[in-house]
Amino acid sequence: MAARLDRESEAVLQGTLDMLVLRALQLEPMHGWGITERIEQWSEEVLCVGQGTLYPALYRLERQGLIASAWDVTENNRRARYYKLTAAGRRHVGRELESWRRLSRAIDLVLRATEA
Amino acid sequence: MARRDDRIAEEIAFHLEQQTAKHIAAGMSPEDARRAARLKFGGVAQAREAARDELRGAWLRDFARDLRIASRSLARVPSFSITAILTIGLGIGAAAAMFSVVDGVLLRPLPYPESDRIVQLFQIGDTGRRGGNVSEPNFLDWQAQTRAFAAMAETAAFPQTVLGAGEPQSVPVAMVSRGFFEVMGTRPTRGRGFLAGELQPGAAPVALVGARFWERWKGDRPPSGESIVIAGVAHAVVGVMPPGFDYPRDAAIWTPREQGVASPSRTAHNFRVVARVRPGIDIGAASAELSRVSRAMKVRYGGETMMADAVAVPILDVMTAGVRPALRLLLAASVLLLLVACTNVSNLLVARAASRQREFAVQLALGASVGRMTRQWLAETIAIAGAGAAVGVGLAAVAVQVFAAMGPATAPRLDQVAVRWPAVAFAAASAAGVALVLSLLTAWGTRSVRIADALSDGTRGGTSSRRQMRAREGLIVAQVALTMVLLAGAGLLARSFTLAMAVDPGFRVGDDLVLQTSIEFDGEDGPERRASMQETLLARLRALPGVVDAGLINAFPLGRGQFANGMFIEMTRPDEITAPGQFEITAPQFQGRTGEAEFRAASPGYFEAMGIPIRRGRAFEATDGPGPAHVAVISQSLADAQWPGRDPLGRYIQFGNMDGDLTALRVVGVVGDVRELSPEALPGRVIYVAARQRPRTTSGFSVIVRGPGLRALAEPVRRIMREVAPASPYELSTVGAGFDKAVGSRRFNLWLVAAFAAAALALAMLGVYGLVAYAVSQRSREMGIRVALGAEPSSLVRLVLARAAWLTVLGSAAGLVLALLASRAVTGMLFGVTAADPGVLATVGGIMLAAAMAASYLPARRILKQAPGRTLRDI
Predict the structure, then answer these.
(1) Could you tell me which CATH number the domain at A2-115 has?
(2) So where are chain A's domains?
(3) What is the rounded distance in angstroms from the CA atom of residue B289 to the CA atom of residue B146?
């Protein structure tokens, strides 16, 4: 039973992580490490991406056709795999953000109501 | 796989490097920086593992889990699962076995380099008939005027007596011309090939032998001065061909054709021609060039040649032409059986789906997604199809061995038949196809399960159960239709077989002994010495106790020998033609006096021993000995065709182009027609000459001994052969055995198609049984009410039976339409009936209906046993 609970909580995290990754890639193509840096920066170091789950998430999103990847060279002439949003990914992230905003607003409203 | 792992490793390494660099930039020592980076990353190994899972695709993992669940759920209903798996296994097994046979016989390339470029060249006569035999001058013109062939060669192969290599034996010997080994792309592996100096008349006779012939004789070592006697002539063995090489016609010995002198006549059709098409040139283009050249030759030579056109055919196609229609038909039959098996299992699955409706409904109600359940259902189907395929491949492996062992002796390449990867792939593809078809059919049968309906008592017969009933009925109709196609095929083949067996071949079929042998002497007086030895042999055989008569012929009906034929001229007087130069079929003075006939040499006693009736005049007699007056006996059909309404007796025939003896033949008798080639082929027009007078073509011959049969005569005949002709290889059989062999492939095809049809019929009966049983249980409440209201139970039984009969008739009608549409596939294999034979089709329709009624009756009878009170209580 414990195992199953773990799995479910991971699934919740997964969903969020996917969205964060897609959001991070919205501006420009990036490699894996760049994505973690970007998320940490934007979240003012609050969100720390569990990197053991980052690459599985990237591969999953790639398989779902939301992102695509290719080898490229960094500004320091180092080979790295760069990820970018596909057209489907772009549409997807728009929808996800919309529904996330609705949801977080709703949760926020509920929380404020109980505070009052 | 490796590339996937490399990618993961490289990305993780890059990540750690960047993180470390960042820490160093923040002032950490490189050591600490690396550790911190690792710490932040988490378990590298787990990350790699998780990443790999994602790359490989979770669906595979899920699918494995689905399959596990499916197998568990199938294991809970063993009778259903075993029935379904065995049914599919039977279908796939039959189809995979037939596919293996088709693959081995028709598709696998011959064991020569680029064997698909090797063709046989056929000449096409004025009448459009294709002939495999070609004359020397035409061959030379082909060779000189075509560009598409890299090499071209003549061959002529027939069995000859070989001495000096163990016991006397009859061995297929091929005369082959220069270029033959280039055409075949094969050379001797031990010893050497023919030398240029050996390819001319008068050179020392040499021979190449086959690997098996050599190894049985001399084992492993290379040839070193051995020699063998072929038809009385000593040949030095100079080389051994590689194992498996036996072209043409199972040859085991090859000799240079150039050592003999070929006839310069353009109508002396003595050789088969093989050629290798140049690389880069299409077979069709090569054939077109050959045709162009041949048509130009016809324009140039006119009546001198009988060739109007020519065609090049790959040798594999030539070899398998005789069995291709039968194999195609059998493959089609096995696929039909597979389809019948599919409909049957599909029906089972619909029934299972029906019984699980509540389970599904509960799952749906608890929030399982429709997609998830569909996947689960698909997994079960795939598990059944997969297990069925495994069973099928096992069955096929056994079946092809039986096939190769029991297949007709005349079928080529049966030794090539085995279950190979293509057949396994075929089974796997069939399984995938089966799973797909089953899922679709079942989905169609169970679509729109209504949760509410199913959660309430399913037996109340809502729309979904009615829909299921319709689906199952549809499946039964399809199954009956497919079965009907198979039954119709089997029925037509069975009718053809009985008709072929009932044909009067023109001679008595029984267990009279047939001695097939040859006597060969070299030299000028060879034929004379042979003729007197044959007389001795016949006299000794006639003297055996119980023997009524004995006679010989050089080509035994339905057996082996020289089945030669050609043009003859009816002469106005015995000495009209006495020199070869006068024998010009096309000469104007012979106009209207020429004909075509088979040439046979027979002895006194032959017609009597064979039971061939003498219609006019007389048969051969002991007095027809050597001398200036030769006699001939002709067949009734020749008499009718050549001298309609006139008396053929006393007429003179010149047929010396067949054996080189130009003595006039006087017709002394007319005998009944004989079906020589097969019971199904029309009798040929024959001119029989007296073997004693014309002994040049009787080196290979058969003796028929009318008397107490093979068993009683075998020992004394062996003794006589030892004493009279110790150097002659021989075989003993019976007339009946020859007849059996002649109808062997027909019998074999019939048995196989009948087996497929019987299996399909059994499956269809199972299907009907299941359907009626289901219908009765579904309607038990209704029946109960009806009985309670005063209906006769027997009328209810009739109601159920009528429904089953209606479905069967519907399916049978559809099947008949299908059978008629597919009739072209079977037409070539029929004898005496057409594919639309009403008697046969009505009979198989009757069988189908009777079988369906028998299958329905058992479950329908249950209505009678149902106590109306109980069913009513159950409401």
Answers:
(1) 1.10.10.10
(2) 2-115
(3) 7
